[in-house]
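dumping this here before i forget
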Amino acid sequence: MTITVTPDVFRLAQVFTISRGSRTVANVLTVRVIRGGITGWGECVPYARYGETLESVTAQIQSLPAKISRMELQDALPAGAARNGLDCALWDLEAKQAGMRVWQLAGLPRPGPEITAYTLSLDTPEKMRAQARKNGFRPLLKIKLGTPDDMARLEAVRAGAPKSAIIVDANEGWSAEIYTELAPHLLRLGVRLVEQPLPAAADAALIGMNRPVAVCADESCHDCNSLPDLKGKYDMVNIKLDKTGGLTQAIKLKARAEAAGYGVMVGCMVGSSLAMAPATLIAQEVAYTDLDGPLLLAQDRETSLKFDDAGVHPPSAKLWG
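structure:
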């Protein structure tokens, strides 16, 4: 078996800004596993927030023995982008070798389309209102916030898209005081969910705090090992394959989170359709799906996911799985 890792760059349709900074491109790694003339592939997105770079993730993958199995991989690498890229490539390889789809191999139900959120980049209230108006036909909008003066942005988006459901992602940008001040306004404006309002290292402040709108752990939840520390702080967890370290662990996290009483959101980093494809399998019948990465790109993979009024569709076999 041969494992290769190559960097790819996808231009974004417009500047994408969150509380931690802005970007104009998505830098990803494409992982290919070749065995017996068959190639399985996957994509991962190294994330600086977790100390990852294109170089460090590439080195992690290249440090592994070429014949590593998917089960061996779970102990060989920690949760993160490196394990995700290789895990998804191995799932794709196994499916192609078996002449089956990944959902069948994993014992999952046949996937269908799921309504996905569409993300509005952090900007001035005026520009965010314009973004909201342009995308007001979408059933679910996600707003990037995370600054002390977000109230005007919330009001602007709701005015621009009065019929859309709204979820908010603060990306650890608020303090407990700011969240407490904003919470009743979130409820008033019809916000359904708030992702990671406080820094992961300071989220103990959520214990005992009034949460009129459901609060979802993102940066505070990586894999199953994260669950014990979330008790009393969060109502939901955001499962991202680049955090869990692949589909294998994402399936386990979804089951254990639901068993523990958490609602589930399935999210993504900004990547191509190849990165989203495995996540569509665990996005089935969850509370919220946020797999809009390809919609934010100016270019995508040659074979891409289908998005329409029914939502994001599972991948064709030509793309993945």
